[in-house]
């Protein structure tokens, strides 16, 4: 969940849901992430979801997002990094 409209930069809120292999809700979060673009907010959502899953011991994760831009970034050679390192902590 990313609350933003259009292709703008502004105050952003993001959140995610973590479910188990049967689709049962495990946890959910929502938080303000400051000022950023919609794509940056989407990347924060991915990072938060993956970090939360990692923290509860999940090592095989199915990531679902409605952001085609995030999917494209994940599949690209450059990955999710762009000019920042939002997902880099998860590589270790």
UniProtKB/TrEMBL annotation:
One of its GO terms (molecular function) is RNA-DNA hybrid ribonuclease activity. Gene3D superfamilies: Ribonuclease H-like superfamily/Ribonuclease H. CDD domains: RNase_H_like. InterPro entries: RNase_H-like, RNase_H-like_dom_plant, RNaseH-like_sf, RNaseH_domain, RNaseH_sf. SUPFAM superfamilies: Ribonuclease H-like. It holds the Pfam family RVT_3. It comes from the Eukaryota. Residues 8-78 form the RNase H type-1 domain. This is RNase H type-1 domain-containing protein.
């Amino acid at each position: 969940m990313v609350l933003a409209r259009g292709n703008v930069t502004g105050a952003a809120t993001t959140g995610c849901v973590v479910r188990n292999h049967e689709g049962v809700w495990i946890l959910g979060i929502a938080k303000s992430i400051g000022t950023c673009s919609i794509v940056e907010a989407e990347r924060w959502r991915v990072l938060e979801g993956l970090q939360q899953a990692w923290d509860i011991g999940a090592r095989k994760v199915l990531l679902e997002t409605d952001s085609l831009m995030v999917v494209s970034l994940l599949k690209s050679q450059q990955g999710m990094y762009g000019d920042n390192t939002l997902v880099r902590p998860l590589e270790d």
